């Protein structure tokens, strides 16, 4: 999610940009002075190292009406200029005609631009070549038209360079006929967005509602022919920042809804309030080679229910809540078998063996308490995610593992649990919790079983499983009721093994009674938890930097040492250990504040050098262009805390057949690192109705919208997606 202070930051950036522009152009701007010989109906080329620019005319003589001109740019690879509304940075080309003779007016037109998404900034402009059409009206048809234009423009790649130059072109009086540049001007004039009727496009309305410190604009559109890859560019009150839209299409792809987050509302100080309602906007809708433009007034509406997937959007095609609840129960049950849950195997095994030879009634109550802890924790997660979404935050499954304080607290808890299994101390819960077991069922610590279930749930959330991703996507895109219902069903699914033992306590009572053999078992299970702590430290290094991870790791080791020493020295040691533990907790939890995060690649611990070398930076805006060029694009959204992601890589992506395909000359493999919060990645996932990882998709000429792979990858699924998305030539190369 963008910061709530983005509006102020953006306003400050715009002010600085205007000042920089003035100073640069007035005093230190580069002067474009290189000239090449002119052609009939064109000015001389003005050349720089990055660009060359000239004026064109569609006719060699003035004629009797308006004159069609063109401002032609040719740019070196990688360099771009900006559209009339540049987005989060830059400024567009501008022309000053004050020194012209016999010119009444000149109107500059703007062909449909391209979106550029870089480091969270959304900008709009042109690369390679563009002609900006100009409609010039002479004052007198019988006199020569002497055009003199002062041009200012900004060209950017990794750096931005402002230029200022002068262009001149004279059109003599006389009869008009098409000149050699008429086709060039007309070709770009055809891509200037109009009302859309020529392309069968129509923008029907704009709705708006508040979401936290930001607002949403929902642009509704329809088309006579199916949409392919629609996008929308918004223009409105100065100072606002518009995110890339989330696009939702109907079943027949002839209706589109585009949701655009708008930041910077605190800049709106004109008396109408910090709202977009009743304000005027210009929406430019682009879909491949067709476009439409409309000026509409935003209508305030109730917060709209997000649409689950990119297709379909019709109510009749939406999955039912009952089906999603079934998926959630199945996904939660399968989650017990996923690698994320293996670290808590020690807790489950200990819950089982300590009831060996015990009273079936005690077994039943203990496992019911653990199940209650699981379900309650899922409900807490549901309410927390609903609250974050209502505040405008980007949400998803397992996002708490992106927070250094959560990881630090979890590391300390794992350390304490491991020390308890090793016998360094006994957990003494508050009396009101312990009494729930002592006085109602003669079972020591029903509260402990409850907390054990909660702890198991927290450690399970970095994983996804079959059916789980679909259910979570439905919930997080739905209402608060949907979120709570689906997460409760997930909790029931994860707790089904506990409920099974509660229903048939004989499963536990047939085991031998607890005895000395349990000491060795607890030592082994404590090592499993220590391994979990080491993995959490690795994840923390990716979120808070290596320094913070080292500090927390040292604190965890010292904590274990303090508890061991206190255990050996008796009651006095235990009393003295309390303030020491408090100091260690404070140091650990403050580590993320003073330990800056270091750069991370997102590559998992099992990822080989061969696989790491394949990945390119994640750039969703570049995918359509790569597909049009005949490339196949493989997207991997991963995170250090996603164990399933690492298993997918080690088990499937490391296979030579998959590596060969990923490393092919016709394939671009992109990796998106979601170890830390990233609003762009969250929006990308949400565009597929997904809110958790792993997520993999394959794009190609045969599948420009992308083929989404299952959460658990298989070699057959990956290679099948490549075959379904690639070109015929690409397929032939791999047969």
Structure summary, number of beta strands: 27
SS-based class: alpha+beta
Q: Taking all residues together, what is the mean pLDDT?
A: 76
Strand content: 15-25%
- Give the helix level as a range of percent: 40-55%
> How many distinct domains?
4
Strand order of the largest sheet: 2-3-4-5-11-8
Ranges where pLDDT stays below 50 over 5 or more residues in a row are: 1-30, 306-318, 427-444, 597-604, 727-735
Question: For the terminal residues, how far apart are their CA atoms?
Answer: 44 Å
Number of helices: 20
Give structural notes.
By secondary structure, this protein is an alpha+beta fold. It has four domains: about 30-190, Immunoglobulin-like; about 195-315, Immunoglobulins (Immunoglobulin-like, Sandwich); about 320-595, no CATH class; about 610-735, Glutaredoxin. It has 20 helices and 27 strands. A hairpin with a 3-residue loop joins strand 3 (about 45) and strand 4. The longest helix is centred in the last third of the chain and has 53 residues, at about 515-570.
């Amino acid at each position: 999610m963008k910061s709530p202070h983005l509006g102020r930051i953006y306003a400050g950036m715009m002010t600085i940009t205007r000042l920089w522009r003035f100073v640069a152009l007035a005093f230190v701007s580069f002067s474009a002075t290189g000239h090449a010989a002119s052609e009939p109906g064109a000015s001389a080329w003005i050349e720089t190292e990055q660009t060359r620019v000239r004026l064109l005319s569609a006719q060699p003589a003035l004629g009797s009406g308006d004159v069609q001109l063109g401002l032609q740019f040719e740019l070196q690879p990688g360099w771009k200029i900006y559209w009339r509304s540049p987005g989060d940075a830059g400024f567009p080309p501008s022309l000053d005609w004050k020194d012209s003779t016999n010119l009444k007016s000149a109107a500059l037109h703007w062909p449909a631009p391209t979106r550029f998404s870089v480091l969270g900034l959304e900008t709009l402009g042109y690369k390679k070549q563009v002609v900006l059409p100009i409609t010039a009206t002479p004052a007198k048809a019988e006199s020569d038209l002497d055009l003199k234009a002062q041009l200012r423009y900004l060209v950017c790649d990794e750096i931005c360079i402002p230029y200022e130059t002068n262009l001149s072109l004279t059109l003599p009086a006389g009869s008009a006929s098409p000149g050699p540049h008429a086709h060039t001007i007309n070709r770009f004039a055809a891509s200037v967005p109009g009302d859309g009727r020529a392309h069968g496009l129509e923008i029907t309305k704009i709705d708006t509602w508040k979401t936290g410190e930001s607002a949403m604009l929902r642009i509704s559109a329809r088309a006579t022919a199916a949409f392919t890859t629609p996008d929308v560019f918004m223009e409105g009150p100065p100072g606002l920042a518009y995110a890339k839209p989330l696009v939702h299409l109907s079943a027949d792809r002839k209706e589109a809804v585009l949701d655009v987050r708008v930041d910077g509302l605190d800049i709106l100080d004109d008396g109408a309030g910090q709202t977009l309602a009743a304000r005027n906007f210009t929406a430019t809708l682009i879909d491949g080679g067709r476009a439409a433009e409309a000026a509409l007034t935003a209508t305030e509406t109730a917060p709209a229910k997000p649409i689950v997937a990119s297709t379909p959007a019709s109510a009749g095609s939406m999955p039912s809540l009952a089906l999603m609840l079934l998926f959630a129960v199945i996904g939660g049950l399968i989650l017990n078998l996923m690698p994320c849950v293996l670290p808590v195997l020690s807790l489950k095994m200990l819950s089982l063996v300590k009831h060996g030879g015990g009273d079936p009634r005690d077994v039943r109550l203990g496992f019911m308490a653990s199940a209650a802890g699981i379900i309650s924790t899922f409900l807490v997660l549901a309410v927390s995610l609903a609250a974050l979404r209502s505040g405008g935050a980007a949400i998803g499954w397992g996002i708490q593992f992106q927070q250094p304080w959560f990881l630090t607290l979890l590391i300390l808890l794992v350390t304490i649990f491991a020390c308890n299994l090793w016998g360094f101390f006994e957990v003494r819960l508050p009396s009101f919790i312990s009494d729930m077991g002592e006085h109602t069922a003669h079972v020591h610590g029903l509260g402990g079983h409850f907390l054990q279930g909660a702890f198991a749930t927290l450690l399970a959330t970095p994983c996804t499983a079959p059916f789980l991703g679909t259910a979570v996507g439905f919930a997080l895109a739905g209402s608060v009721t949907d979120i709570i219902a689906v997460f409760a069903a997930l909790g029931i699914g994860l707790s089904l093994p506990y409920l099974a033992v509660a229903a048939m306590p004989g499963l536990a009572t047939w085991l031998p009674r607890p005895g000395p053999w349990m000491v060795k078992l607890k030592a082994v299970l404590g090592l499993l938890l220590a391994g979990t702590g080491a993995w959490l430290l690795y994840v923390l290094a990716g979120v808070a930097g290596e320094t913070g991870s080292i500090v927390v790791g040292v604190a965890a080791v010292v904590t274990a040492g303090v508890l061991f020493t206190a255990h050996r020295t008796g009651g006095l040691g235990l009393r003295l250990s309390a303030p020491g533990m408090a100091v260690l907790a404070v140091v650990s939890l403050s580590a993320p504040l003073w330990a800056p995060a270091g750069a991370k690649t997102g590559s998992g611990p099992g990822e080989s050098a061969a696989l790491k070398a394949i990945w390119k930076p994640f750039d969703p805006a570049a995918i359509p262009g790569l597909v049009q060029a005949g490339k196949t694009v493989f997207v991997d959204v991963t995170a250090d805390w996603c164990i399933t992601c690492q298993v997918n890589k080690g088990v499937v992506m490391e296979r030579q057949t998959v590596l060969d395909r990923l490393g092919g000359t016709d394939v671009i493999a992109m990796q998106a690192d979601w170890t830390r919060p990233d609003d762009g990645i969250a929006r990308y996932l949400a565009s597929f109705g997904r809110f958790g990882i792993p997520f993999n998709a394959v794009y190609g000429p045969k599948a420009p919208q992308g083929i989404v792979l299952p959460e658990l990858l298989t070699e057959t699924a990956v290679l099948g997606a490549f075959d379904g998305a690639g070109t015929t030539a690409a397929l032939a190369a791999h047969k």
